[in-house]
Amino acid sequence: MNTLRNSNAERDARTLVHPYSNLSYDTESRLLTIVKGDGCYVEDDQGNRYLEGMAGLWSTSLGFSEERLADAANAQIRKLPYYHLFNHRSTEPSIDLAEKLLSIAPEGLEKVLFANSGSEANDQAVKLVWYYNNQKGRPEKKKIISRWRGYHGVTVASGSLTGLPGNHADFDLPIRNIIHADCPSHYHHANPGETEEAFAERLAESLEAQIIAEGPETVAALIAEPVSGSGGVIVPPKGYYERVQKILKKYDILLIADEVITGFGRTGKMFGCETFGMKPDIMTVAKALSSSYLPISATLISGEIYNAMVEESRKHGVFAHGVTYAGHPVCAAVALETLKIYEERDIVGHVAEVAPHFQARLAALADRPNVGHARGIGLIGAIELVADKTSRAPFAPARGVGPAFQLHLQRNGVIVRALRDAVAFCPPLIITKDQIDVLFDAVEDGLDFVAREFSAETV
Ligand code: PLP
After folding, report:
1. In what side-by-side order are the strands of the sheet with 414-415?
2. How far apart are CA 180 and CA 307, in angstroms?
3. Domains observed in the chain
4. How high is the ipTM of this complex?
5. Which N-terminal stretch is annotated as signal sequence (predicted)?
6. How far is CA 138 from the centre of its chain?
7. Ligand 1 site: residues with CB under 6 angstroms?
8. Residue 334 burial (CB < 10 Å; 0-12/13-18/19+)?
């Protein structure tokens, strides 16, 4: 351990609280301090290079050294480092970005409300749904349905939407009016022999039964990631959204698409909504909106919801919502440049070109003894690590196979992310076929490591 690492690790342990980390662990021995990046690679304070197989947090779509984004930030910070959108003030970058976003967004989305993070974008989506139904004179129509294993953030409302019990435990979540529906994972929840279509039909029936049991007049919206990311990369079964949307329509329930991971090419189309035929009333985006170079998110809303907001403003004298950094000009300038690059370099076309190779390498892992399932779409995927392939018995959590797998790959220069029993892959969208091979060669080696070091114990 050299002096720099010693110093970083010691100072970090003394000062920082790490999100999504076990705070009881000794940070000093585990710390990975990233100091620079280039293309799909990052480098730590020891000079070790890693292929970033997770694009940071599913997000640095253009990799780690896009000069144009640095230049856009530089130019804007020199011209106007900050201004806001309150009280009818505006900035050119936020106008340009809103215009650009709406020009590529799914049909029916007509206005943009900016924020800073995915959590905030979803949080304000919830508030807007409540606001909308109050304006419509149906104050009882307030429940938001999320799905188990869905991930929507960590604020009080978005953390409630998140369908992972660990995000609720001892945080006193979920809050009132947020309920959860079935997780659409065929691998985890289909009956033996049940086809994807039959499973999708059963999920839809169960959703309808839940809505009826709650009282359709009390259910306002359903929020869904086209593909759930942090919940373990759950790709919905065939026909799922078609069936779900029919039910939502029947009971006058809004659809919120959380495109925080799937937005901007990840699934092989500009938005996951296009891939899965979703027609959202509200769509949230963040992460790849700026390739994560600066924090910015947005909630896109339909004209009908916007009109209700206008009426509420008339009634109260103000739309009393907004955050200091909404549409921050430097973040907006970087996001706008990001969207221009997507277009100019046909990033969606690139994903469509390399994704079959990514998915083929991923699918090939399904034959490995410790892989219960390999799933994905576009440039996102996951494998499910199991102790026993036939019974699908997981490894005992105490054995820590996921973290050990992740660490093994890290030692071999590849970053992936263990999520419970799944290991996720979500590289920068600029990844090449050769780099996809580097990623999956390391994963293959990691599976050899699991087979070697972890016996078939299941308890
Ligand atoms: N929604 C989805 C689908 C996400 O994956 C995430 C974060 O991973 C969020 C929302 C929350 O975004 P943030 O961490 O920027 O608050």
Report:
1. 34-38, 41-44, 49-52, 414-415
2. 29
3. 32-65+346-453 (3.90.1150.10), 69-344 (3.40.640.10)
4. 0.99
5. none
6. 31
7. 57-58, 117-119, 122, 151-153, 225, 229-230, 258, 260-261, 286
8. buried
